[in-house]
Fold this sequence. Notes:
16% strand, six-stranded mixed β-sheet, 25 strands, alpha/beta, seven-stranded parallel β-sheet
Amino acid sequence: xxxxxxxxxxxxxxxxxxxxxxxxxxxxxxxxxxxxxxxxxxxxxxxxxxxxxxxxxxxxxxxxxxxxxxxxxxxxxxxxxxxxxxxxxxxxxxxxxxxxxxxxxxxxxxxxxxxxxxxxxxxxxxxxxxxxxxxxxxxxxxxxxxxxxxxxxxxxxxxxxxxxxxxxxxxxxxxxxxxxxxxxxxxxxxxxxxxxxxxxxxxxxxxxxxxxxxxxxxxxxxxxxxxxxxxxxxxxxxxxxxxxxxxxxxxxxxxxxxxxxxxxxxxxxxxxxxxxxxxxxxxxxxxxxxxxxxxxxxxxxxxxxxxxxxxxxxxxxxxxxxxxxxxxxxxxxxxxxxxxxxxxxxxxxxxxxxxxxxxxxxxxxxxxxxxxxxxxxxxxxxxxxxxxxxxxxxxxxxxxxxxxxxxxxxxxxxxxxxxxxxxxxxxxxxxxxxxxxxxxxxxxxxxxxxxxxxxxxxxxxxxxxxxxxxxxxxxxxxxxxxxxxxxxxxxxxxxxxxxxxxxxxxxxxxxxxxxxxxxxxxxxxxxxxxxxxxxxxxxxxxxxxxxxxxxxxxxxxxxxxxxxxxxxxxxxxxxxxxxxxxxxxxxxxxxxxxxxxxxxxxxxxxxxxxxxxxxxxxxxxxxxxxxxxxxxxxxxxxxxxxxxxxxxxxxxxxxxxxxxxxxxxxxxxxxxxxxxxxxxxxxxxxxxxxxxxxxxxxxxxxxxxxxxxxxxxxxxxxxxxxxxxxxxxxxxxxxxxxxxxxxxxxxxxxxxxxxxxxxxxxxxxxx
Length: 767
């Protein structure tokens, strides 16, 4: 048995022993409710037991994902949950424990007294392999090769492995710079700016887990709120926190922050934009309190008290209204104060039991200080042009008032509300009833697109201003697209210091894909610095040129099916203009597929709009007609940037027109096989269209310009029975070069070696 196999055997023995102790802990805990004295105690014990079971992890989880060895010879295993033996000796340390920080902080420059860091690749609790970082050796290698400080071979290996699309086991990818953000001070508003695949969401989720574990009992799971951009995204992140032992954190999408109403109305773009404007907060407040007090010009109000009719003058009532309006509290609380003041005034003139008097005053209260629900008030406001004009003041134009005005439904129960109405309803709920600021820390993901009214809805739920806000300005699209974070900060709490942090390394998106997407940044977000991408994908992006819409849909579905047949999660990201054709093709081919619009994603074929794709990831992406995606949004180049960067492995583009922004020169809409932009067929597409021929002068080892993506021209002709001899020669030579590289050179140096080889070949050919 070789040394490596013997070490693997020893490590597996340790994992098995730790697993046995964890299972005994699980068994002991599961028996606890049966020992309770009564059913009530049993229920409480069962609830507490389940929480503890969640904290120690499931039976199918590996006991550890890492190990650190210090210079003194001590060895510490790191896992999602702490595990102890029968003598209460620690077998596995929880990654959140302060003592585990060295595992993440150690680097070649500052090893933190560690000699070695080991990372395990496991299938259930079976160790498949492990990789070591020996810090002394790493320091020598960095000095010699100027390698990246924070990027380990173990991380790259993990990133190259097949992903499920649900971010499982992301603990293993935390690097030192990310770990600093995870454990940053909670007494601040932390903004994390990061490009596609930089780990923003992973950091946010681990930050929640870290804060809970290290709060010394001052922070509970129900003190934390996580807000995502959509139900699909929230379901996506909800899979991660339980694996970290935090099952009770409230997770919602931003459209759930509102009182209960019937949804489904579709607003036009002008209405969506206006209802998200921060000015709406002032409008609904003015409109609400504009309903209070005697009407303009009204001299008195009649009050029927028993058999008597009392006339209360406007001059008598105005001080009572002013006193109630000037008090602290919500609209409902101020209404109650006004009722008390009115009862005192009328009671001084009419002798009547107080409870009967209050009932007698109900009709007057409905006129002087009406009672509303958020929905009943907003329905009446939208339905009255006069009330809208009165509340608009100098802040809204006549055109904007007409955008808000609409005919109400016959009954309140029939009224249907749009997504853009929800934040306005929440503002009214806050004014009328008061939305309790119940959270000690709020995490906001994909924050760059939120409207001012949505940001207000989030901010009012913060008890102290402590927040973690993550997003990417380069991916900011829609009605509230931003070029910096300042506008967003204007609508968030200012109680605590604001700190802006930026992530510099991209771990998810393959380098070949990002190089293509980055062509859009000079137009989409010229002030945003692109992340440094640290991994390569299995193939270059491929473009499929088609003749018409029908061929476009059939090609997109065929390519997606090919990916799915290889066990990959795949998304067809298409604009509205091509959606019906795609769905028709899926139906004709009897393909089982899921729609992100229904909040349903799966491992096979998914259909996703560019807007819905934000924050999601798939093994393969099929982007349909980039030009139409650009045309869908005022910041369409950003929308296309988002769509292109949703993949962890493969990217295909299916289009009639190649956008000039993605070309090395003018748009190559009429490129023919054999031209400078048409290169070899994609070797991983077994069902692809006919291959195109390549001139050997465009080899990656030459110093000629190299296209950044492969292009396939779909054809209605017959496919050649075999590839040209020159192409077979190129393939064989390339395979030999790749095999040699993989055997002798670290992946991070492959491109540098190939570039240098090209230079040497050029020198040889010039001699």
